[in-house]
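Form P-L/3: holo structure prediction, ligand dodecyl-COA.
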Amino acid sequence: MPIPDTSRHTPASMDANPNIEKRASHCFGCGPANPQGLHLVFTTDTSNPDIPVATTQFQLDRLHEGPPGYIHGGIVATLLDEAMSKLNRPLNVLAMTRHMEIDYLHPVPLYQSLVLTSRHLSREGRKLFHRAEIQRPDGTVLARAKGLFIVIDARLLALAGLTQPES
Ligand SMILES: CCCCCCCCCCCC(=O)SCCNC(=O)CCNC(=O)[C@H](O)C(C)(C)COP(=O)(O)OP(=O)(O)OC[C@H]1O[C@@H](n2cnc3c(N)ncnc32)[C@H](O)[C@@H]1OP(=O)(O)O
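OUTPUT (holo model):
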């Protein structure tokens, strides 16, 4: 069996912890404890509690390069997915991405501060519909996504060995 490269793989030391918020500290998009993660920190506008909006600024470097000088398309998808997932907690649900579609409108540059924003669109039962965009500071939209998130219930969480977050 191959030996994991410890410079790239961190120990699964949190795996016994059933608290979803502690386990989420290694989320590739937003987990502060993931040394190789994107460390995105969002602010969430809930002034209209039915339509939360999440926003962050970010800047990536060649670690996440795809086309020379630009962010890899899979990372662009990650950014958009992460932004949309940040709308679920303000809506008081745990949910996972079921479907997302992306328009890659322009290459997304490395080494530039960019704006990532998401907005809740609508809900039909367990189905949450969100959208997200990556913009230049001048408002030019470089990529946008629509996502369908499905609310996870306590039974599904328990199957994964996890407990609900404290409200
Ligand atoms: C555990 C850790 C938790 C952790 C929770 C926190 C995690 C946050 C992470 C950030 C977000 C991610 O990246 S999450 C990681 C990426 N996502 C995943 O790994 C999810 C993998 N998928 C799944 O586990 C499952 O498919 C679920 C749980 C998402 C849903 O399964 P399900 O409960 O069986 O639901 P299913 O019947 O398939 O679909 C629900 C409804 O959506 C409809 N539907 C399906 N596709 C479409 C579509 N393209 N357009 C319209 N509607 C659609 C179906 O017809 C149905 O409608 P109707 O018949 O009900 O009307």
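COMMENT: The two ends are 42 Å apart (CA to CA).
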